[in-house]
Amino acid sequence: MLTQEEIAHATKVLGREPNETELAMLDVLWSEHCSYKSSKRWFHLFKTRGERVYLGIGEGAGLVDIGDGVLVGVAMESHNHPSQVDPYNGAATGVGGIIRDVISQGCKAVGLMNCLRFGHPSKPRNAYLLENVVRGISDYGNSVGIPMVGGELEFDDSYDGNCLVNVVCIGVVRPEKVVRSSARTPGHYLVMFGATTGRDGIAGVSFASETFSDEEEENRGAVQIGDPLAKKVVIDTLAQLVEENLLDGLQDFGGGGLTSCAGEMAANGGTGVVVEVEKVPLREPGMTATEIVISESQERMLAVVAPEKLERVLEILGENDTPHAVIGKVTDDGYYTVLENGEDRAQLPISLLVGGFPVPEREEGSLPPRSHGISWYEEPEDYASAIIELLGSVNIASRSWVYSQYDQHVQANTVVDIGDNAGVLEFPLNKRLAFTSDCNSFWTLLDPQQGTANSAAEALRNLVATGARPILIADCLNFGNPERPDSYAQFVEAVRGLGRFSHDFDLPIVGGNVSLYNESEVEGVVHRINPTPQIMIAGIYELGYSPIRRNLCTPWANIFLVGETLPELNGTEYQRLKLGEVRGFPPAYRPDAEKRAMTAMLEAHKAGLIRSCNNIGRGGLAVALMKMALYSKYGFKLNTETVPGTTETLGQALFSETSARYLAEVTETNQPQFLEIMAMYGVPVCELGLTVADRVADFGKFRVSLEKAVEAFETGLTKYLE
Fold it and tell me: Does position 215 have pLDDT exceeding 70, yes or no?
């Protein structure tokens, strides 16, 4: 809700008191969700420019040039609060909204991703949320015919009262077909099309900018209701309008509804708009002007159309049986005017409505001290049992229960299925791009800056393991209440970490979202989520290159550990397994080592020297190696005493989550050239052992039963969902 200071500011600028409709419009546009009033002051820390960037932060989707007249569009958004209250519709409309963001730039939507956070699934409420969020995502995505190509899932008690649903959409467009989110020419028409307008989703952005209370039921009216079949009609209709170059501007009806949609386009174009609400197609009788302009009903688009093209636009909309109406015009007066049957219902300066809020003061508190020590560490009595237990933990176990519900091949452009290090899509002219997303919220809890940078580095390694060269970043920054200094400190430090990473690796951030107030209050006690800066990175392959998979490929090949292993056990899955919590200083972000390893591995990939590859991340070396063998025809036999670094024990070598490390399967004939490349870039490397024809997991000093490992991996999550 608007603060007294904000109301006073609006009154002073207007020279009068805002009326009911104007207050509602200001409330949605000045909400944290729409205005970024606590966060955008820090965006200067990000790298946002680059040779490939065609359209960056500020519109529906970022566009990146991958050559030969092909642009890739990416957008990332959150739908956290709605999904906590109504998981099915909240998640479904999150997918619908991110699709609209991408197609509003003229793109064809070709891929989806989802990144989810819940409390432990052993609690019935959390299992219910997970099951229905996944069902909402799958029902919607499958119905509109867009493949799901990747995602992430993490569990922690901090998400008990506030789950996270972050969604990504990927698109493709030619430069001449790009549509901008602006209303630049006075006299052009505002044409609304798609679904009709109802009362669902009213004040949704305000609801998303508040801390959860004990009562969730009262917020159900703020959750939008999706209609994937209507969305499919919108997608097909829009494709025809874009192909015929009929649109001068386009924006989707997302958070803030018509207020945000028309207001932001006017702000981008330096113009004004007049909207006649009685012309808006409604599905509920008796809606007031206020309800109409802030409704967040789904599957709606607003186009700016030149007078000479209006007839053809209306003809196409009619042919497709798409509800539509001419609801207003672009003006030159710099105002957002709302009319109802010729009478003024609102008249606000665009400069006040969009970004004209009084900037709130935010205090950045201090973060708690932490230690590098691992005095808590004890060597496991049974290494094999510890590895199997890790494979069965909910943050490592198979996610096949989730992604088996998604259609991954609907457009026949999916090259690598979900479940590997990255999803891969085929684009025009035989271009292939990989997409992955990551965030280790336990690292970011312990050290927001280093944890964020290192989470981004892990996403980068996932791409590099497949042979892709990273080219762009999108993000979704999920944090608690920015009005609390300790929470705000987590946010600011995380932004510093992501900004540092983007500059270190020369990767532009082209799109993203900030979601704050992700905390719940139960009986007066505040429960805040772990700081969760979700990071998506995309990478491109050399022309004709086939992505490298994770599974072992051939017997009697060498298994190399690339990178140095340090005794970094704090913040790891092994620490959570032993202590039931994380503490201390997490694995350090090491950009120089990371860049050397990335460059060397990409050189080796380019030379065709690597048969299979895996990034070493959550669970450490032991888990990364087991994942390479779980579903392979082959096994391995190691000499783990050769692990380089400063680790003192076998367990530290196996479970450390030190960054900048890979596992690579290299045949004997390719070994000399592989080692030469590693030496050229100063990357530590050692031969751990060999792949073998038998399905065994022989660590030298002990063996792990692959049958028991597969069972633990496959049932670690599903045992809570049956």
Answer: no
Task: Please indicate, yes or no, whether residues 235 and 384 belong to a single structural domain of this protein.
Answer: no
Contact indicator for 508, 518 with CB cutoff of 8 Å: no
Structure tokens at 246: 């009929």
pLDDT at residue number 220: 46
Specify if 134 maps to a domain: yes
Give the max Cα distance, the chain.
Answer: 84
Total domains in the fold of the chain: 2
Distances (CA, A) of 492 to 51, 313, 431: 28, 46, 37
Query: Is 213 found in the same domain as 164?
Result: yes
Contact indicator for 608, 542 with CB cutoff of 8 Å: no
Count, in order, helices (H) and strands (E) of the chain. Answer: 23, 28
147 found inside a domain: yes
Q: Which two tokens stand for residue 245?
A: 């170059």
- Using N-to-C axis directions, what is the helix angle for 87-103 and 124-144, rounded to 10°? 40
3-state class of 181 per DSSP? coil
Q: Are 265 and 397 in the same domain?
A: no
In the 3-class helix/strand/coil scheme, how is 159-177 assigned residue by residue? HCCCCEEEEEEEEEECHHH
**Catalytic annotation on 33?**
yes
d(CA 447, CA 584): 9
| Residues 279-322: tens digit of each pLDDT | 999 999 999 999 999 999 988 999 999 999 999 999 999 999 99
- Tell whether 326 and 232 lie within a shared domain: yes
Residue 396 belongs to a domain: yes
Element (H, E) at 635: strand 635-638
Q: Do 387 and 307 reside in the same domain of the chain?
A: no
253 and 158 inside one domain: yes
Name the phi and psi angles at 570, rounded to 5: -75, 140
CATH number for position 300: 3.90.650.10
pTM of the model: 0.95
Cα(6)–Cα(584) distance, integer angstroms: 41
Residues 477-523: tens digit of each pLDDT: 999 999 999 999 999 999 999 999 999 999 999 999 999 999 988 77
Q: pLDDT per residue over 314-325, tens digit each? A: 999 999 999 999
Residue 159 in contact with residue 529, Cβ under 8 Å?
A: yes
Distances (CA, A) of 345 to 275, 292, 333, 572, 654: 10, 11, 17, 57, 67
**Residue 417 pLDDT level (bands cut at 50, 70, 90):** confident
H/E element, 96: helix 87-103
Reading the block at residue 131, the tokens are: 């099951």
- Of 9, 44, 79, 81, the active-site residue reads 79
Above pLDDT 70, what percent of the chain? Answer: 96
Domain with 553, as residue range(s), is 373-406+549-722
Q: From the candidates 33, 81, 324, 605, give the one annotated as an active-site residue.
A: 33
Pair (295, 190) in one structural domain: yes
Report whether 554 contacts 562 (CB < 8 A). no
Residue 671: exposed, middle, or buried by beta-carbon count in 10 A (0-12, 13-18, 19+)? middle
Specify whether 228 is located in the same domain as 317.
Answer: yes
Q: What is the mean pLDDT of residues 201-227?
A: 57
For 431-480, the DSSP string reads EEEEEEEE--HHHHHH-HHHHHHHHHHHHHHHHHHHTPEEEEEEEEEE-S
**Total length of the chain:** 722
d(CA 345, CA 21): 7
Based on the residue annotation, tell me whether 188 is a catalytic residue of this protein. no
* Angstrom distances, CA of residue 145 to CA of 72, 148, 408, 409: 18, 10, 10, 9
| 45 part of a folded domain | no
